Amino acid sequence: MTPLTKVILPAATVSILAAVLLVEPARPVFAQRGAPVTVMNTPLPTRITNTPTVTIAGTPAVTVSGTPAVTISGTPAVSVGNTSGAPLFVRSVDDPSRQPFARDCVIDTFDTAGRGSCAFEAPPAGKRWVIESLSGQVITDTGLKPFSIDLQLCSAGYATDNFYPAVFQGNSAFFGGDYFTVNQPIKLYSDTTGGCTGAPFFGVVISNTPTSSFAEFILSGYLVDVS
Predict the structure, then answer these.
(1) 73-98: pLDDT as tens digits
(2) Buried b vs exposed e over 97-106: b needs ≥16 C-beta within 10 Å?
(3) Rounded to two decimals, what is the model's pTM?
(4) DSSP designation for 99
């Protein structure tokens, strides 16, 4: 075969293939049908790296099973719904109705200077009295008057004196003596913290030496826990 023939034959073959490709129409290509895949109902391990931002639209239902540990960092804003149809139930730990108290003390003996006193028990350890009401009466010999009524108590380590007036009500033809009352709302605290451990007490001073005088006082309120 001459050199010219070797050049012409490959060129002719390329021309014939090009002509065939131009004449043959394009045909669609179909992928083979894949084999069926079954996913078992078993949690697959998921690993999330970095700190991606996740946006949740709407209000999807979320079910949390067990007692997973939840860690909240920073100070995220939390909104709690509270409507008449679905109210949020709360409880006051210092509600006065939870730990009410009422105590009284009686003075039936006065010294020659007209002084008498009576004491309550101290508030329980770990508790504080919140005193909201004071009431009482003083009965003296006719013509005598109580000129000092002092409630002394400890609060947060300090002893305080608290003075109250007595209002004359009159005298009795049957029982004798002059009657005075003490009755008013107050706001005092009594506890045994800070080194002041004395029990609350009343001290009364009458204007002269009594022969048959009497006094009674009632404190009421509620207890709270001392933190």
Answers:
(1) 778 877 777 888 888 777 766 676 67
(2) eebebebebe
(3) 0.60
(4) S
